[in-house]
Amino acid sequence: MASEAQSEGSGLAFHPMDQFIVQPLFAGNEVHWYTITNVTLWMALTVVAVLAIMVFGTSHRGIIPSRSQSIGELVYGFIYKMVEDVAGKDAVGYFPYIMTLFMFIL
């Protein structure tokens, strides 16, 4: 059917939902709970990127903050204040989890 659409000159060369297909990166076509897939690769890259941003943003702390330190402090302050306003002082203990989740989704 895809070849018919291409030969007629109408339609897409690829389906937009194909980017969400979970495929193993190494040997085989079966996906098990321990299989490294394209999804786990992108998740790992996201975690590394968030860690790099936070580590480099706080590595050269100063009284006059750099651009990356300012961004890190703004994000930290925004999420902390949001958790405190929405859930109260008792929920501040869950702040590290909420901050991690927010940064991962962002």
Strand pairing plus helix content: what structural class? Answer: mainly alpha
What value does the average pLDDT take? 82
Order of helices and strands: HHHH
Domain module count: 1
Low-confidence stretches: none
Helix content: 55-70%
Give the arrangement of secondary structure elements:
Elements: H1 2-8, H2 38-59, H3 67-87, H4 95-105
Helix pairs in contact: 2-3, 3-4
Task: Explain this structure.
With 106 residues, the chain is mainly alpha-helical. 58% of the residues lie in helices and 0% in strands. Helix 2 (38-59) crosses helix 3 and helix 3 (67-87) packs across helix 4 (95-105). The two termini are 37 Å apart.
How do you describe this structure in short?
With 106 residues, the protein is mainly alpha-helical. It is built from four helices and no strands.
Sum up the structure in keywords.
mainly alpha; elongated; 0% strand; 106 residues
